[in-house]
Sequence to fold (332 residues):
Amino acid sequence: AAAAAMMKQSGVMALAFAAICVAYAHWPGTNWSDVRRTLFGWTALVTGFSSVFVPSLIHGLLTAPLDYLDAVFHFRWVGASLWAYPMGYQALQFFLSFIVVLPALAVFFAGAAWGAILGSRNRFVWTWLMISLAGVSISGDYFAHYYIHAAPPLAILCADGIGRLWDRRRGPPFPLVTRLMAGLAGLSLGYMLFTFLPSSPEERLWRASPEPRYLLSRSMAAYLNTHTEPADRVYVAYSGADVVYPSNRMSAVKYLFFRPLFFTPGAYADLLELIADPDRRPKYVLLDRTPFNTPFKQDETEFRRRLEAGYIAETNFPAGFVMYRRVEGSPR
Fold:
């Protein structure tokens, strides 16, 4: 639970799930002995959680406190959470992402529902499913890959529902439900075969997290590789791991994600100095024409000013991305 909470805000639900499971072990307890066992279990759970989480918290605060607090707490709960956007936007995003995953998970949802109709009362797995969906709902973006939380309990409940349906067929027939389940299974399988499997790795990544550059990263990386020497440095502003690594070139900036770049003290100032230094600046810089929404908009403007002073726009890529090449001997 501690590891899950540190990796994703929805992982906090793992702690809630563990606490509920401890209570289930002695439910419905009516005497003091059962209550005492539940309290003892919760105490052990909190102790174990703290033994993993607290050392990580201390380490983060001692090494890069601003970056750590932003990545683990501030951004997770303010920048990408249920409370970050208006409820109308939240509802729309939740609906759209659910529509994306529904064809792939339709048979699982239907199987779980039919199992419930036929008497499935597995408290553990149903709680697991509800907690997983609650974890999905915490996020403010509702990317389709968040629903992976719900896939394991859904699969178990679906198997239980299909097993109950099969047993019931020996008694009263359910031909309509059987055909419906077969149709949904075909829909899920067909959706996976004809939508995800034939697509490229970039397209599959884009479907899970719709960042426009993911569809272009391979061509951008190939451009950098063919227009530079192995010793040349490049920079992809401001999150460029998906382009830098396939290009087989070193990044001139050690931060390959924008959050540590903006929140680590001195990191963005170092970037501005690097771009203006004739001896150290990278040969190529890839940048989105759209102004980046950062807490340091003046610094972002200064970065673009220095880039225009020392670089020339050499190639335009789709979705507004521009490849800048260093101009030798240009003024600061």
Summary: The mean pLDDT is 78. The CA atoms of residues 286 and 323 lie 5 Å apart. The chain is about 65% helix and 5% strand.
